[in-house]
Amino acid sequence: MVYLAFSIQIAMQSNLLQIKNLTVSFPQKSKVVNQISFTIGKGEVMGIVGESGSGKTVSSLALMQLISNAKISADEFFFYKDDLVPIDLIKASADEMQKIRGKEIAMIFQNPMTSFNPVLTCGEQVMEAILVHQSISKKEAKLKTIEWFTKVELTNAEEVFERYPHQLSGGQKQRVMISMAMCNYPKLLIADEPTTALDVTLQFSLLRLMKKLQAEHQMAMLFISHDLNVVKLMADRIMVMKDGECVECNDSKSIFENPKHDYTKSLLANRISLNSNTLSSSKVATDVILEVKNISIEYNITQKLAWKQHYKKVVDSVSFTIHKGEILGLVGESGSGKTTIGKAIVLLNEIANGEILFHQQSIHQFKKKELFQYRKKVQFIFQDSYSSLNPKQKVGDVIVEALLLHKLAKDLSEAKTKALHWFSLVNLDENLFNRFPDELSGGQRQRINLARALCIEPVLVIADEPVSSLDVSLQSAIIDLLKNLQSKFGFSCLFISHDLAIVNYLCDKIIVLKDGVIVEEGYTSAILQHPQHSYTKLLLESVV
Asked: How far apart are the first and last CA of the chain?
Protein backbone atom coordinates (compact mmCIF):
# COMPACT_ATOMS: atom_id res chain seq x y z
CA MET A 1 0.00 0.00 0.00
CA VAL A 2 2.86 2.36 0.85
CA TYR A 3 4.55 1.51 -2.48
CA LEU A 4 1.27 2.11 -4.35
CA ALA A 5 0.77 5.49 -2.70
CA PHE A 6 4.39 6.43 -3.50
CA SER A 7 3.90 5.39 -7.14
CA ILE A 8 0.78 7.52 -7.45
CA GLN A 9 2.61 10.47 -5.89
CA ILE A 10 5.49 10.14 -8.38
CA ALA A 11 3.02 9.97 -11.27
CA MET A 12 1.24 13.06 -9.99
CA GLN A 13 4.53 14.94 -9.68
CA SER A 14 5.28 14.49 -13.41
CA ASN A 15 2.26 16.68 -14.18
CA LEU A 16 2.63 20.42 -13.79
CA LEU A 17 -1.04 21.08 -14.50
CA GLN A 18 -3.91 18.68 -13.93
CA ILE A 19 -7.44 19.61 -15.03
CA LYS A 20 -10.50 17.40 -14.83
CA ASN A 21 -13.99 18.40 -16.01
CA LEU A 22 -13.37 22.16 -16.24
CA THR A 23 -16.59 24.08 -16.95
CA VAL A 24 -16.92 27.82 -17.55
CA SER A 25 -20.25 29.57 -18.00
CA PHE A 26 -21.42 33.19 -18.17
CA PRO A 27 -24.73 34.66 -16.99
CA GLN A 28 -27.55 34.30 -19.55
CA LYS A 29 -25.28 32.17 -21.78
CA SER A 30 -24.77 28.46 -22.21
CA LYS A 31 -21.53 26.84 -21.09
CA VAL A 32 -18.64 28.19 -23.16
CA VAL A 33 -16.33 25.47 -21.81
CA ASN A 34 -17.95 22.16 -20.94
CA GLN A 35 -16.15 19.52 -18.87
CA ILE A 36 -12.77 19.49 -20.59
CA SER A 37 -9.92 17.48 -19.06
CA PHE A 38 -6.19 17.51 -19.81
CA THR A 39 -2.77 17.49 -18.20
CA ILE A 40 0.48 19.28 -19.00
CA GLY A 41 3.74 17.66 -17.97
CA LYS A 42 6.87 19.49 -16.92
CA GLY A 43 8.66 20.82 -19.99
CA GLU A 44 5.83 19.70 -22.30
CA VAL A 45 4.14 21.80 -25.00
CA MET A 46 0.39 21.24 -25.14
CA GLY A 47 -1.45 22.69 -28.12
CA ILE A 48 -5.12 23.70 -28.20
CA VAL A 49 -6.77 24.19 -31.60
CA GLY A 50 -10.29 25.01 -32.70
CA GLU A 51 -12.41 27.63 -34.40
CA SER A 52 -13.22 31.04 -32.96
CA GLY A 53 -15.68 30.63 -30.09
CA SER A 54 -14.61 27.06 -29.32
CA GLY A 55 -13.47 28.03 -25.80
CA LYS A 56 -9.68 28.00 -26.29
CA THR A 57 -8.90 31.43 -24.84
CA VAL A 58 -11.58 31.20 -22.12
CA SER A 59 -9.94 27.99 -20.86
CA SER A 60 -6.56 29.71 -20.57
CA LEU A 61 -8.01 32.81 -18.90
CA ALA A 62 -9.72 30.56 -16.35
CA LEU A 63 -6.27 29.22 -15.41
CA MET A 64 -5.14 32.74 -14.59
CA GLN A 65 -8.43 33.80 -12.90
CA LEU A 66 -8.73 36.60 -15.46
CA ILE A 67 -12.43 36.15 -16.27
CA SER A 68 -15.02 38.33 -14.57
CA ASN A 69 -18.70 37.43 -14.17
CA ALA A 70 -18.03 33.79 -14.96
CA LYS A 71 -18.78 30.63 -13.03
CA ILE A 72 -15.80 28.26 -13.04
CA SER A 73 -16.01 24.72 -11.71
CA ALA A 74 -13.84 21.59 -11.97
CA ASP A 75 -13.34 18.28 -10.22
CA GLU A 76 -9.58 18.92 -10.33
CA PHE A 77 -7.85 22.20 -11.17
CA PHE A 78 -4.38 21.68 -9.78
CA PHE A 79 -1.12 23.49 -10.48
CA TYR A 80 1.99 21.91 -8.95
CA LYS A 81 4.07 24.88 -7.83
CA ASP A 82 6.60 22.47 -6.29
CA ASP A 83 6.95 18.71 -6.19
CA LEU A 84 4.61 18.07 -3.28
CA VAL A 85 1.85 20.61 -2.73
CA PRO A 86 -0.68 21.28 -5.52
CA ILE A 87 -2.50 24.61 -5.68
CA ASP A 88 -6.22 24.57 -6.47
CA LEU A 89 -6.44 27.47 -8.92
CA ILE A 90 -10.20 27.83 -8.43
CA LYS A 91 -9.92 28.22 -4.67
CA ALA A 92 -6.73 30.35 -4.71
CA SER A 93 -7.19 33.78 -3.14
CA ALA A 94 -6.47 37.04 -4.95
CA ASP A 95 -3.17 37.39 -3.05
CA GLU A 96 -2.13 33.87 -3.96
CA MET A 97 -2.95 34.44 -7.64
CA GLN A 98 -0.98 37.69 -7.57
CA LYS A 99 2.10 35.67 -6.61
CA ILE A 100 1.38 33.00 -9.23
CA ARG A 101 0.66 35.27 -12.21
CA GLY A 102 3.84 36.33 -13.94
CA LYS A 103 6.01 34.21 -11.63
CA GLU A 104 4.74 30.64 -11.85
CA ILE A 105 2.32 31.00 -14.79
CA ALA A 106 2.80 33.70 -17.41
CA MET A 107 0.78 34.57 -20.49
CA ILE A 108 1.46 36.01 -23.94
CA PHE A 109 -1.72 37.60 -25.26
CA GLN A 110 -2.91 37.66 -28.86
CA ASN A 111 -2.89 41.43 -29.31
CA PRO A 112 0.27 42.91 -27.77
CA MET A 113 -0.87 46.52 -28.23
CA THR A 114 -3.85 46.09 -25.88
CA SER A 115 -1.59 44.34 -23.35
CA PHE A 116 0.76 47.30 -22.89
CA ASN A 117 0.33 50.55 -20.99
CA PRO A 118 0.65 53.20 -23.73
CA VAL A 119 2.09 55.86 -21.37
CA LEU A 120 5.00 53.74 -20.09
CA THR A 121 8.07 52.76 -22.08
CA CYS A 122 8.53 49.10 -22.99
CA GLY A 123 11.53 48.87 -20.67
CA GLU A 124 9.61 50.25 -17.70
CA GLN A 125 6.85 47.68 -18.17
CA VAL A 126 9.20 44.69 -18.25
CA MET A 127 11.13 46.16 -15.29
CA GLU A 128 7.88 46.36 -13.32
CA ALA A 129 7.22 42.64 -13.92
CA ILE A 130 10.72 41.83 -12.62
CA LEU A 131 10.52 44.09 -9.55
CA VAL A 132 7.15 42.63 -8.49
CA HIS A 133 8.55 39.10 -8.24
CA GLN A 134 12.28 39.57 -7.59
CA SER A 135 14.00 41.31 -4.68
CA ILE A 136 16.51 43.34 -6.68
CA SER A 137 17.26 47.01 -7.26
CA LYS A 138 15.92 49.09 -10.14
CA LYS A 139 19.39 49.24 -11.65
CA GLU A 140 19.65 45.42 -11.64
CA ALA A 141 16.10 45.15 -13.04
CA LYS A 142 17.02 47.46 -15.92
CA LEU A 143 20.08 45.38 -16.74
CA LYS A 144 17.98 42.20 -16.64
CA THR A 145 15.38 43.81 -18.93
CA ILE A 146 18.01 44.78 -21.50
CA GLU A 147 19.48 41.28 -21.21
CA TRP A 148 16.05 39.78 -22.00
CA PHE A 149 15.55 42.16 -24.92
CA THR A 150 18.83 40.83 -26.30
CA LYS A 151 17.74 37.23 -25.60
CA VAL A 152 14.56 37.67 -27.64
CA GLU A 153 16.67 39.03 -30.50
CA LEU A 154 15.58 42.67 -30.37
CA THR A 155 18.20 44.79 -32.12
CA ASN A 156 19.36 47.91 -30.25
CA ALA A 157 17.99 46.64 -26.93
CA GLU A 158 18.90 49.87 -25.10
CA GLU A 159 16.91 51.93 -27.62
CA VAL A 160 13.91 49.60 -27.39
CA PHE A 161 14.00 50.01 -23.61
CA GLU A 162 13.25 53.73 -24.04
CA ARG A 163 10.58 53.37 -26.71
CA TYR A 164 6.81 53.37 -26.20
CA PRO A 165 4.68 50.48 -27.55
CA HIS A 166 3.28 52.51 -30.46
CA GLN A 167 6.85 53.12 -31.69
CA LEU A 168 7.49 49.41 -32.26
CA SER A 169 6.41 47.10 -35.06
CA GLY A 170 4.07 44.17 -34.43
CA GLY A 171 6.97 41.72 -34.30
CA GLN A 172 8.96 43.91 -31.91
CA LYS A 173 5.97 44.32 -29.58
CA GLN A 174 5.48 40.56 -29.49
CA ARG A 175 9.15 40.05 -28.60
CA VAL A 176 8.80 42.55 -25.74
CA MET A 177 5.72 40.61 -24.62
CA ILE A 178 7.76 37.37 -24.63
CA SER A 179 10.40 39.12 -22.49
CA MET A 180 7.74 40.25 -20.03
CA ALA A 181 6.26 36.76 -19.80
CA MET A 182 9.57 34.92 -19.40
CA CYS A 183 11.67 37.34 -17.33
CA ASN A 184 10.69 35.57 -14.08
CA TYR A 185 11.28 32.07 -15.50
CA PRO A 186 7.71 30.74 -15.15
CA LYS A 187 7.08 27.01 -14.96
CA LEU A 188 4.16 27.34 -17.39
CA LEU A 189 3.83 29.78 -20.30
CA ILE A 190 0.42 30.29 -21.94
CA ALA A 191 0.74 31.57 -25.51
CA ASP A 192 -2.63 32.67 -26.89
CA GLU A 193 -2.44 33.08 -30.68
CA PRO A 194 0.99 34.76 -30.32
CA THR A 195 1.69 35.05 -34.07
CA THR A 196 -1.78 35.77 -35.49
CA ALA A 197 -1.74 38.45 -38.22
CA LEU A 198 2.08 38.59 -38.34
CA ASP A 199 3.72 38.10 -41.71
CA VAL A 200 5.27 34.77 -42.61
CA THR A 201 8.91 35.63 -41.83
CA LEU A 202 8.05 37.29 -38.50
CA GLN A 203 5.87 34.33 -37.57
CA PHE A 204 8.60 31.82 -38.34
CA SER A 205 11.19 33.87 -36.46
CA LEU A 206 9.01 34.19 -33.33
CA LEU A 207 8.05 30.52 -33.31
CA ARG A 208 11.70 29.51 -33.60
CA LEU A 209 12.56 31.88 -30.75
CA MET A 210 9.78 30.57 -28.48
CA LYS A 211 10.77 26.97 -29.17
CA LYS A 212 14.40 27.78 -28.39
CA LEU A 213 13.60 29.55 -25.10
CA GLN A 214 11.16 26.85 -24.06
CA ALA A 215 13.82 24.17 -24.55
CA GLU A 216 16.56 26.21 -22.82
CA HIS A 217 14.49 26.81 -19.67
CA GLN A 218 12.64 23.46 -19.71
CA MET A 219 9.39 25.38 -19.44
CA ALA A 220 5.96 23.87 -20.04
CA MET A 221 3.78 25.66 -22.56
CA LEU A 222 0.09 25.83 -23.39
CA PHE A 223 0.08 26.96 -27.02
CA ILE A 224 -3.29 28.16 -28.39
CA SER A 225 -3.82 28.71 -32.10
CA HIS A 226 -6.25 28.25 -34.97
CA ASP A 227 -3.31 27.61 -37.32
CA LEU A 228 -2.80 23.86 -37.50
CA ASN A 229 0.58 24.15 -39.19
CA VAL A 230 1.88 26.33 -36.36
CA VAL A 231 0.57 23.95 -33.68
CA LYS A 232 2.13 21.00 -35.49
CA LEU A 233 5.50 22.77 -35.37
CA MET A 234 5.25 23.66 -31.68
CA ALA A 235 3.24 21.05 -29.74
CA ASP A 236 4.02 17.60 -28.33
CA ARG A 237 0.33 16.88 -27.75
CA ILE A 238 -2.79 18.55 -29.15
CA MET A 239 -6.33 18.99 -27.83
CA VAL A 240 -9.01 19.82 -30.41
CA MET A 241 -11.92 21.90 -29.12
CA LYS A 242 -15.36 22.45 -30.64
CA ASP A 243 -18.24 24.37 -29.05
CA GLY A 244 -16.54 24.35 -25.65
CA GLU A 245 -15.83 20.63 -25.61
CA CYS A 246 -12.74 18.50 -26.19
CA VAL A 247 -13.48 16.27 -29.20
CA GLU A 248 -10.02 14.76 -29.51
CA CYS A 249 -6.72 14.76 -27.61
CA ASN A 250 -3.60 12.91 -28.72
CA ASP A 251 0.05 13.30 -29.58
CA SER A 252 0.77 15.66 -32.44
CA LYS A 253 1.77 12.99 -34.93
CA SER A 254 -1.42 10.96 -34.38
CA ILE A 255 -3.65 14.04 -34.72
CA PHE A 256 -2.19 14.90 -38.12
CA GLU A 257 -1.62 11.43 -39.52
CA ASN A 258 -4.56 9.53 -38.04
CA PRO A 259 -7.31 11.90 -36.80
CA LYS A 260 -10.27 10.12 -35.18
CA HIS A 261 -13.01 12.75 -34.93
CA ASP A 262 -14.87 14.13 -37.95
CA TYR A 263 -14.30 17.70 -36.76
CA THR A 264 -10.53 17.20 -36.61
CA LYS A 265 -10.65 15.75 -40.11
CA SER A 266 -12.60 18.78 -41.34
CA LEU A 267 -10.05 21.19 -39.80
CA LEU A 268 -7.24 19.36 -41.57
CA ALA A 269 -9.18 19.29 -44.83
CA ASN A 270 -9.81 23.05 -44.66
CA ARG A 271 -6.11 23.92 -44.54
CA ILE A 272 -4.94 25.88 -47.56
CA SER A 273 -1.40 24.83 -48.44
CA LEU A 274 1.23 25.74 -50.99
CA ASN A 275 0.10 22.70 -52.96
CA SER A 276 -3.46 24.00 -53.35
CA ASN A 277 -3.05 25.97 -56.59
CA THR A 278 -5.49 24.84 -59.29
CA LEU A 279 -5.04 27.92 -61.50
CA SER A 280 -3.69 27.87 -65.00
CA SER A 281 -0.67 30.04 -65.78
CA SER A 282 -1.83 30.38 -69.37
CA LYS A 283 -4.76 32.70 -68.59
CA VAL A 284 -4.94 35.27 -71.40
CA ALA A 285 -4.65 38.90 -70.31
CA THR A 286 -7.54 41.05 -71.53
CA ASP A 287 -8.37 44.73 -71.11
CA VAL A 288 -6.29 46.70 -68.61
CA ILE A 289 -8.50 47.96 -65.76
CA LEU A 290 -5.87 49.71 -63.67
CA GLU A 291 -2.30 50.78 -64.36
CA VAL A 292 0.09 51.87 -61.63
CA LYS A 293 3.01 53.74 -63.18
CA ASN A 294 6.21 54.40 -61.23
CA ILE A 295 4.48 55.57 -58.05
CA SER A 296 6.46 56.63 -55.00
CA ILE A 297 4.88 57.35 -51.62
CA GLU A 298 6.49 59.22 -48.74
CA TYR A 299 5.45 59.63 -45.12
CA ASN A 300 6.22 62.71 -43.06
CA ILE A 301 7.98 61.35 -39.97
CA THR A 302 8.71 64.75 -38.41
CA GLN A 303 8.56 64.33 -34.63
CA LYS A 304 8.54 67.84 -33.13
CA LEU A 305 9.77 70.79 -35.19
CA ALA A 306 7.31 71.59 -37.96
CA TRP A 307 9.88 73.60 -39.95
CA LYS A 308 12.28 70.64 -40.06
CA GLN A 309 10.27 68.35 -42.31
CA HIS A 310 11.65 64.83 -42.75
CA TYR A 311 10.14 62.32 -45.15
CA LYS A 312 10.63 58.59 -45.46
CA LYS A 313 10.03 56.87 -48.79
CA VAL A 314 7.90 53.77 -48.16
CA VAL A 315 7.06 52.93 -51.79
CA ASP A 316 9.68 53.46 -54.47
CA SER A 317 8.89 53.51 -58.24
CA VAL A 318 6.32 50.69 -58.22
CA SER A 319 4.59 49.77 -61.49
CA PHE A 320 2.04 47.07 -62.34
CA THR A 321 -1.20 46.51 -64.23
CA ILE A 322 -4.43 44.73 -63.34
CA HIS A 323 -6.43 43.22 -66.19
CA LYS A 324 -10.14 42.55 -66.45
CA GLY A 325 -11.15 39.47 -64.44
CA GLU A 326 -7.66 39.00 -63.01
CA ILE A 327 -6.70 38.35 -59.38
CA LEU A 328 -3.30 39.86 -58.62
CA GLY A 329 -1.57 38.98 -55.37
CA LEU A 330 0.58 41.53 -53.56
CA VAL A 331 2.79 39.88 -50.93
CA GLY A 332 5.55 40.94 -48.57
CA GLU A 333 6.41 41.44 -44.92
CA SER A 334 4.79 43.98 -42.62
CA GLY A 335 6.08 47.43 -43.56
CA SER A 336 6.84 46.48 -47.16
CA GLY A 337 4.27 48.96 -48.49
CA LYS A 338 1.44 46.62 -49.51
CA THR A 339 -1.43 48.38 -47.74
CA THR A 340 0.07 51.79 -48.56
CA ILE A 341 -0.22 50.99 -52.28
CA GLY A 342 -3.76 49.66 -51.89
CA LYS A 343 -4.88 52.82 -50.10
CA ALA A 344 -3.22 55.01 -52.73
CA ILE A 345 -5.35 53.33 -55.41
CA VAL A 346 -8.52 54.42 -53.59
CA LEU A 347 -7.04 57.87 -52.87
CA LEU A 348 -6.61 57.32 -49.13
CA ASN A 349 -2.86 57.93 -49.53
CA GLU A 350 -1.19 60.63 -51.62
CA ILE A 351 1.57 59.74 -54.05
CA ALA A 352 4.78 61.77 -54.35
CA ASN A 353 5.58 60.72 -57.93
CA GLY A 354 4.08 58.69 -60.76
CA GLU A 355 0.44 58.20 -61.67
CA ILE A 356 -2.43 55.75 -61.38
CA LEU A 357 -4.61 55.21 -64.45
CA PHE A 358 -8.13 53.77 -64.39
CA HIS A 359 -9.26 52.84 -67.90
CA GLN A 360 -6.33 54.95 -69.16
CA GLN A 361 -7.45 58.06 -67.23
CA SER A 362 -5.46 59.55 -64.36
CA ILE A 363 -7.46 59.19 -61.15
CA HIS A 364 -5.79 62.33 -59.77
CA GLN A 365 -7.42 64.47 -62.47
CA PHE A 366 -10.97 63.25 -61.86
CA LYS A 367 -13.61 65.90 -61.26
CA LYS A 368 -16.12 65.49 -58.43
CA LYS A 369 -18.64 63.48 -60.49
CA GLU A 370 -15.94 61.27 -62.02
CA LEU A 371 -14.43 60.68 -58.59
CA PHE A 372 -17.81 59.56 -57.21
CA GLN A 373 -18.13 57.02 -60.05
CA TYR A 374 -14.54 55.87 -59.49
CA ARG A 375 -15.21 55.22 -55.80
CA LYS A 376 -18.19 53.11 -56.86
CA LYS A 377 -16.17 51.09 -59.36
CA VAL A 378 -13.19 50.46 -57.06
CA GLN A 379 -13.99 49.03 -53.64
CA PHE A 380 -11.75 48.33 -50.62
CA ILE A 381 -12.16 45.50 -48.10
CA PHE A 382 -10.22 46.26 -44.92
CA GLN A 383 -8.33 43.82 -42.71
CA ASP A 384 -10.22 44.62 -39.51
CA SER A 385 -13.81 43.58 -40.11
CA TYR A 386 -15.07 45.30 -36.95
CA SER A 387 -13.53 48.77 -37.22
CA SER A 388 -14.67 49.10 -40.84
CA LEU A 389 -18.33 48.90 -39.77
CA ASN A 390 -20.33 51.52 -37.89
CA PRO A 391 -20.95 49.95 -34.45
CA LYS A 392 -24.28 51.83 -34.15
CA GLN A 393 -25.61 50.77 -37.55
CA LYS A 394 -27.40 47.49 -38.17
CA VAL A 395 -25.50 45.32 -40.65
CA GLY A 396 -28.45 45.04 -43.03
CA ASP A 397 -28.62 48.84 -43.21
CA VAL A 398 -24.94 48.91 -44.23
CA ILE A 399 -25.86 47.26 -47.54
CA VAL A 400 -29.14 49.15 -47.92
CA GLU A 401 -27.29 52.45 -47.53
CA ALA A 402 -24.73 51.52 -50.22
CA LEU A 403 -27.47 50.53 -52.69
CA LEU A 404 -29.44 53.75 -52.14
CA LEU A 405 -26.35 55.97 -52.26
CA HIS A 406 -25.37 54.66 -55.69
CA LYS A 407 -28.97 54.57 -56.98
CA LEU A 408 -29.02 50.81 -57.48
CA ALA A 409 -32.47 50.63 -55.85
CA LYS A 410 -35.40 52.98 -56.50
CA ASP A 411 -36.66 52.97 -52.93
CA LEU A 412 -36.08 51.54 -49.45
CA SER A 413 -38.24 48.47 -50.09
CA GLU A 414 -36.27 47.46 -53.19
CA ALA A 415 -33.00 48.15 -51.41
CA LYS A 416 -33.96 45.81 -48.55
CA THR A 417 -34.93 43.09 -51.04
CA LYS A 418 -31.61 43.42 -52.83
CA ALA A 419 -29.73 43.51 -49.52
CA LEU A 420 -31.37 40.25 -48.44
CA HIS A 421 -30.37 38.76 -51.80
CA TRP A 422 -26.78 39.69 -51.02
CA PHE A 423 -27.11 38.10 -47.58
CA SER A 424 -27.95 34.91 -49.43
CA LEU A 425 -25.04 35.31 -51.87
CA VAL A 426 -22.49 35.62 -49.06
CA ASN A 427 -24.10 32.78 -47.09
CA LEU A 428 -25.53 34.85 -44.23
CA ASP A 429 -28.80 34.04 -42.51
CA GLU A 430 -31.40 36.79 -43.06
CA ASN A 431 -32.10 36.68 -39.31
CA LEU A 432 -28.83 38.60 -38.89
CA PHE A 433 -30.17 41.53 -40.94
CA ASN A 434 -31.11 43.65 -37.90
CA ARG A 435 -28.09 42.76 -35.77
CA PHE A 436 -25.30 45.15 -34.84
CA PRO A 437 -21.64 44.38 -35.72
CA ASP A 438 -20.70 43.36 -32.17
CA GLU A 439 -23.39 40.66 -32.30
CA LEU A 440 -21.70 38.93 -35.25
CA SER A 441 -18.59 36.76 -35.41
CA GLY A 442 -15.46 37.87 -37.25
CA GLY A 443 -16.33 35.70 -40.23
CA GLN A 444 -19.89 37.04 -40.39
CA ARG A 445 -18.65 40.64 -40.25
CA GLN A 446 -16.21 40.01 -43.08
CA ARG A 447 -19.07 38.58 -45.17
CA ILE A 448 -20.97 41.84 -44.56
CA ASN A 449 -17.95 43.82 -45.73
CA LEU A 450 -17.71 41.61 -48.81
CA ALA A 451 -21.42 42.10 -49.58
CA ARG A 452 -21.16 45.88 -49.09
CA ALA A 453 -18.22 46.05 -51.50
CA LEU A 454 -19.77 43.86 -54.21
CA CYS A 455 -23.42 44.97 -54.08
CA ILE A 456 -22.61 48.21 -55.94
CA GLU A 457 -21.13 46.30 -58.91
CA PRO A 458 -17.42 47.27 -58.77
CA VAL A 459 -14.98 46.35 -61.51
CA LEU A 460 -12.03 46.20 -59.10
CA VAL A 461 -11.90 45.04 -55.47
CA ILE A 462 -8.88 45.65 -53.26
CA ALA A 463 -8.85 43.07 -50.46
CA ASP A 464 -6.34 43.96 -47.72
CA GLU A 465 -5.51 40.91 -45.58
CA PRO A 466 -9.25 40.05 -45.37
CA VAL A 467 -8.78 36.71 -43.55
CA SER A 468 -5.54 37.17 -41.59
CA SER A 469 -7.21 37.13 -38.15
CA LEU A 470 -9.76 34.38 -38.88
CA ASP A 471 -9.45 30.73 -37.93
CA VAL A 472 -8.60 28.08 -40.51
CA SER A 473 -12.13 26.98 -41.44
CA LEU A 474 -13.39 30.57 -41.64
CA GLN A 475 -10.39 31.50 -43.78
CA SER A 476 -11.17 28.67 -46.17
CA ALA A 477 -14.87 29.62 -46.32
CA ILE A 478 -14.24 33.34 -46.98
CA ILE A 479 -11.55 32.66 -49.60
CA ASP A 480 -13.78 30.15 -51.40
CA LEU A 481 -16.65 32.66 -51.24
CA LEU A 482 -14.47 35.43 -52.71
CA LYS A 483 -13.25 33.08 -55.41
CA ASN A 484 -16.79 31.99 -56.36
CA LEU A 485 -18.16 35.55 -56.39
CA GLN A 486 -15.24 36.72 -58.53
CA SER A 487 -15.97 33.92 -60.99
CA LYS A 488 -19.70 34.78 -60.96
CA PHE A 489 -19.39 38.58 -61.37
CA GLY A 490 -16.05 38.83 -63.16
CA PHE A 491 -14.54 41.69 -61.16
CA SER A 492 -10.78 42.15 -60.93
CA CYS A 493 -9.05 41.90 -57.57
CA LEU A 494 -5.86 43.13 -55.92
CA PHE A 495 -5.40 40.66 -53.08
CA ILE A 496 -2.98 41.90 -50.40
CA SER A 497 -1.65 39.21 -48.07
CA HIS A 498 1.35 37.81 -46.22
CA ASP A 499 -0.04 34.25 -46.50
CA LEU A 500 1.64 32.62 -49.50
CA ALA A 501 -0.60 29.55 -49.34
CA ILE A 502 -3.75 31.65 -49.77
CA VAL A 503 -2.16 33.74 -52.52
CA ASN A 504 -1.13 30.53 -54.28
CA TYR A 505 -4.67 29.17 -54.04
CA LEU A 506 -6.44 32.33 -55.17
CA CYS A 507 -4.26 34.50 -57.41
CA ASP A 508 -3.43 34.34 -61.12
CA LYS A 509 -0.32 36.50 -60.79
CA ILE A 510 1.84 37.65 -57.92
CA ILE A 511 4.00 40.65 -57.03
CA VAL A 512 6.63 40.29 -54.29
CA LEU A 513 7.31 43.56 -52.46
CA LYS A 514 10.26 44.30 -50.16
CA ASP A 515 10.96 47.66 -48.54
CA GLY A 516 8.63 49.40 -50.99
CA VAL A 517 10.28 47.92 -54.09
CA ILE A 518 9.08 45.11 -56.38
CA VAL A 519 11.69 42.34 -56.32
CA GLU A 520 9.82 39.72 -58.35
CA GLU A 521 6.58 39.38 -60.33
CA GLY A 522 4.91 36.91 -62.66
CA TYR A 523 2.45 34.02 -62.76
CA THR A 524 1.83 32.63 -59.28
CA SER A 525 2.79 29.03 -60.04
CA ALA A 526 6.02 30.08 -61.74
CA ILE A 527 7.08 32.44 -58.94
CA LEU A 528 6.33 30.04 -56.09
CA GLN A 529 7.70 26.92 -57.78
CA HIS A 530 10.80 28.57 -59.24
CA PRO A 531 11.57 31.75 -57.26
CA GLN A 532 14.48 33.78 -58.58
CA HIS A 533 15.00 36.41 -55.90
CA SER A 534 16.58 35.51 -52.55
CA TYR A 535 13.80 37.34 -50.67
CA THR A 536 11.08 35.28 -52.36
CA LYS A 537 13.01 32.15 -51.41
CA LEU A 538 13.18 33.38 -47.81
CA LEU A 539 9.40 33.92 -47.73
CA LEU A 540 8.82 30.38 -49.00
CA GLU A 541 11.29 28.87 -46.53
CA SER A 542 9.46 30.64 -43.68
CA VAL A 543 6.10 28.98 -44.41
CA VAL A 544 5.23 26.57 -41.58
From this structure: 50
